[in-house]
Each structure stands twice: as C-alpha cells, then as structure tokens.
C-alpha cells in the first residue's frame, strides 16, 4: 500500500524520526510507539487548530480515548522518517472519530492505519459533556 502525500484540506501531517529507544528486540519499532505517535499527532493537530490543553481546561472539559484500533502493515526501522497523517471523520454531540495513516515518505509506504474514538468529558468528575459548537467548528470532518 502506498500513500499519496499531497496536502489534503483537513488532514494534518505530523513528522517524526524513529529513535533508538523505539526499537525492540526484532529490530523494528515496537507497536506501542505507533499508538503513542497517533496520540502525539492528535494533540499537535488540536494545538495547530487553536485548541491546546489550556483552552480545554478553560472549558472545563477535554477529550479522552474510548477505543483505539490499529493495523500494522509494515515495520518502521531506526532512522526512518515517518509522517503521521490524521483527520477527524465524525464529530458527534459527545464523541469524535479520528483516523490516521503512518507513512514513510521515502517510499510512500503506509506502515499502519489506525482510528481512535474519543469522548468529550468534564475534567471534574469525568462525566460525558456536549462538544461545544466553537470546538466542532474548529475541526472540519474529512471523509476518507
């Protein structure tokens, strides 16, 4: 599977260089790091759209993970440059669905695909909260 790395409106690209501490006994990136990369990319996307954690704190609510799904397609190795592409495909009243492609630009290989279902919760007490309209408007949904 190869990726088209053309810029797409609503899709955020987060670059990452594979480091020695991400390599496991099989000489490739341990699967837990792919998941960490998705989380880092999601947070960076939020910041890029004007929603750092401090702004969520002002609202008194933030996103937490309900579920992750990831499919590993090819290994990443030490020194590889990768791009974690992410976009929001659904924005409901209390949830969102975010998708990801982890791509190695050198050969355009898709290394993994993933999705995360997030729920919006009040920081105090962690009960479900409605996604405010200003937040919904900041994250365009992309059908991909």
Automatic annotation (TrEMBL):
Give the SUPFAM superfamilies listed for this entry: Thioesterase/thiol ester dehydrase-isomerase (SSF54637)
Q: Does the keyword Hydrolase apply?
A: yes
User: What is the superkingdom listed in this entry's lineage?
Assistant: Bacteria
Q: Which InterPro entries match?
A: 4-hydroxybenzoyl-CoA_TE, HotDog_dom_sf
Q: Does the keyword Hydrolase apply?
A: yes
Which UniProt key words apply to this protein? Hydrolase
The entry's family comment says: Belongs to the 4-hydroxybenzoyl-CoA thioesterase family.
The protein, known as: Thioesterase family protein
């Amino acid at each position: 599977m190869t990726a088209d790395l053309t810029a797409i409106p609503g899709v955020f690209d987060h670059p990452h260089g594979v480091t020695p501490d991400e390599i496991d006994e099989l000489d490739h990136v341990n699967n837990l790091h792919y998941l960490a990369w998705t989380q880092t990319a999601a947070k960076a996307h939020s910041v890029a759209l004007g929603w750092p954690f401090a702004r969520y704190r002002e609202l008194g609510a933030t996103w937490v993970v309900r579920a992750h799904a990831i499919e590993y397609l090819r290994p990443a190795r030490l020194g590889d440059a990768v791009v974690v592409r992410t976009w929001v495909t659904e924005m409901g009243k209390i949830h969102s669905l975010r998708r990801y492609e982890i791509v190695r630009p050198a050969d355009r290989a898709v290394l993994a695909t993933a999705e995360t279902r997030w729920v919006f919760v009040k920081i105090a007490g962690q009960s479900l909260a409605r996604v405010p309209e200003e937040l919904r408007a900041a994250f365009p949904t992309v059908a991909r």
